[in-house]
Amino acid sequence: MLRRRKTSASEPKKDLSAHGGALSMSQNTRSFFTFSQLVLSAGHLKPPPVLKHSKITYFEVEILDVQSKKQICIVDKIPPSSTLLDVKHKFHKACPQWYPSRVGLQLERNGPYLKDSVNIQSLAASSIITLYFTDLGQQFFLTEYTGPLLIYLLFYIRLSTIYDRMETTKNFRHPVVHLACFCHCLHYIRHLLETLFVHKFSGGHTPLKNMIKGCVFYWGFTSWIAYYINHPRYTPPSFGYRQVSLAALAFLMCEAGNHFINVALAHQNHSGNKACFPSPTYNPFTWLFLLVSCPNYTYEVGSWISFTVMTQTLPVGIFAFLMVIQMSLWAQKKHKLYLKKFYPEVRRKAAMIPIVF
Fold first, then answer.
1. Which of 39, 60, 119, 211 is paired with 260 by a 20 to 30 Å CA distance?
2. Is the CB of residue 307 less than 8 Å from the CB of residue 320?
3. pTM
4. Phi, then psi, of 74 in degrees rounded to 5
């Protein structure tokens, strides 16, 4: 009897524990269901973005001399978005004597010049780009001076297409014609040699428009001058050999003086001594520095005035007159720069011609 009661008393306890376990399981199920609903309503959980370090490929531009193939410099860290003009500016920082406006770059030695707007990435076959450098400023002066030299010689040989063949064979050439050809060629050969070996240009090359104007001026006047002097009916100077000899001597002295002045100026630029005004040396041709600030223009004008007296022709006289005007303008401009830099040394000097200018 007692055992049965005990078992009957324990049964309600088992029922209660079973009921409590069922309640706890239902609560856990509800909480899990609620949590899953929250997750679904919030959307998919996105992982935090991974920062990708993008690698930019920089280019190196190797610049070689177009004639000697020697390396001038290497311009590094060129972004792919850069243009050729950006490369020229960096090249100018590495080599200050080459202004961007006078730098000509080619992909091949005999290829065309690349435009400034060309993207550097379009030229790249690898991370290193090789370009060939040409000095456009020097090319301008070579073109300007080579033309008169060749044009004068064409008139000197008296082509049948220019002069009448009968008059050419009949008329005797005066010695001044040969002397004028020698002096004219000497003048432009000196300019060409100084352009290649003496001058160091610093202001950038002349724009194409000015280059065409300069060539038309020099080539046109050379044709006019050579046509008159080498014409079969050309008449010699009025005072004969004495006039020709003295004028030729003055011409040669002015040519020599012009050369020595340019060498002195180039030596000062190459030595880096730009803190003082150019001073005369033991060479007597440089003593003109004591009187004027631009003796090279003085000698240039003297050469053309002497050539005018020697040949006694109107075209040479007009050309010499225009050269005096042009040289005086250039001399005044340079003289003002000298006054700002070297006032105590230049203030008592004239620009080109003593006392007059």
1. 211
2. yes
3. 0.68
4. -120, 125
